[in-house]
Structures are given as structure tokens and as C-alpha cells.
Amino acid sequence: MKRKILFLVFTDSACIQNHAFMYAIDLHKAGHETKLILEGKGTLALRRLAKGDERFIGFYKAACEKDILVGACRKASGGCVDEKDSVQDIANQYSIELLDDLMGHAGITKYVDEGYEVITF
Asked: pTM here?
């Protein structure tokens, strides 16, 4: 049975971010419908793009090619925890959608309504 899975990445751990992308890509290749949203400190993964982290760039490109990466939370990427953490310029540079359908944050109701299971990292 094919499934629908939404990955929410809240962590700023590079290792865990990599695994979330790997799992989403692997499940997509196996025929499952997967989506991934960067949320909270997880939006700091965008700094890895700007710094040229080749491994992460590979995961990012694969997720974009397969239409897995939905986007990043607008509030969080703007530094909702600390303004110095803002990565919105990087998101704009890479054309990553800033999601704000839940009072400025990335909402997940649409995905739950469509039958997605939610996995949080």
C-alpha cells in the first residue's frame, strides 16, 4: 500500500536534517507520496545551501526535482526565535517558498486533510 507522508524538520542538527531528506527521497523513489517542510530551527538548513555544503545541496536538489520540498515556515525563517537567525534572504535566493498559511507559520491542515501521515524530526 502506497502512503502519503509529510516530514516536518524542526531540528538544526545537520545529521538529522540529512536523514529527513534521505528518507523523504527514498520513500518517494519507492512510490510513496512525500513532502517536506522546514520549520523552526530546521529553517537554518538554508544556511547550509548558502555555505556550499555539497552533501546537503545534493539532497536539496533531489528534493526539489521530485517536488518533495514544499518550503520553509515564514515566521521561523524570519527568526521567530532570534532575529539573527533570519534566513529569508537565502530562501528567496533559492526560490524556496515561505509558508505562512497558519498565522504566519507553515500550516499542515491541508496535508492532514489529504491523508498525509506527519513525521517530525
From this structure: 0.93
